[in-house]
Amino acid sequence: MDHRNAGLSRRRVLIATGASIGLAALTRPAPTGRITRNVSSYAAGVEGCCARAELAEQAVVQRHVRTVWGRPWARLGRLVWPAAVVDQSFVRWCYWWQAQLLDCAVDAAQRGRDPERIGRVSALARGIRTRNLTGWTNRYYDDMGWLAIALERADRLLGVRFGNAVGDLKSALFDGWNPVVGAVPWRMGDDYYNAVAIGPTGIAMARLGEVSRARQLAEFLHTRLRDPATGLILDGVHEPGGQVNPTVLTYCQGVAIGLETELAMRTGDVDHRNRATDLVAATATGLTRAGVIAAAGGNDSGLFMGILARYLAETALALGNTTAARIVHESARAAWDNRAEVQGLPLFGMDWSRPVTVPGTPEAVAQLFPSAVSPSENLSPDLSVQLSGWMLLEADYRLTAAGL
């Protein structure tokens, strides 16, 4: 399907936003339901995995996904639940979170294709285009890499296409290449070259036929950002100057594993297979706790664990990596067994290895507002955290369905 986007003037956007804020202020729903820990345990098997992924999908869709500015054909995910007025009206939004939401919606449609899920994929993509105002692209290469990946998958797996959206993103990513450094920066005009811009850009390039460019990006990650002591990928480096940020994050490993896996499949080069294998082993050693992916936190970092799980599943499926599959399964079991529930739908914590603590007050959902959240409770109102849980359970399902 080829979905064209109607033009929106800035004046119309401002009017729509103002009306949306006013309506939200008048109709803000009171939080309902209680957080409970009376939950069922993880059960093995394809049927159970499918059911868990569907419940995670329903939780995000029911709590977070709403129409944009009264346009039923455009939807986005509210960044928190329950949502404040600025979130209900999408004054505040996050391009890359929405790209991850779209990618999860593609996962769900691949798991169980039906008109509702296909329509949701279309509406979420239209929502991103609508809210982004100026087109499909922005100034951040990591953002554009994530969206290019999601839209390419929607096209390839579901036949859902949005004009020249993928082409626009591909051109922007390709043009972001700095031949002196040998990579793309975090954002236009920046001197910081980080794994989470380079990795998604490389994956998108590989899937869109630019294998040579993808290999150059993989080489940068391997030679410039890999820590020889741990085998893990560091966050990034400033160029010129060579000042390395030594932070180690789970999603940096995820995108590097994903890129090396893509190249191993597309080139047959054993070096890429070996690099992916080595990264999985280093991740298992350094970034899991009792086999479960290490915790991150709320806000942006809420997505880090799920992104690693996605690409661990990719390398398990493509290269038969049993360590990667085991990490995904153990993490899925822990996240599910440690979840809470609200009205029968899962609420995942920021740390999959610890139970979500149920607040002692009956007004449970109100505890999710950021001002009331304590890290010790393992509670988060953030869409990012719930997307990670959904992403993980979709990965768990794909592996189980494949017999891994």
TrEMBL record:
Pfam families: Glyco_hydro_76
Matches recorded under InterPro entries: 6-hairpin_glycosidase_sf, Glyco_hydro_76, MUG_Protein, O_gly_hydro, TAT_signal
GO BP of this protein: carbohydrate metabolic process
Domain of life per record: Bacteria
Coiled-coil spans in chain: none
PROSITE patterns: TAT (PS51318)
Protein's name according to its UniProt entry: Fructose-bisphosphate aldolase
Species in which this protein is naturally found: Nocardia huaxiensis
Classification of source organism: Bacteria, Bacillati, Actinomycetota, Actinomycetes, Mycobacteriales
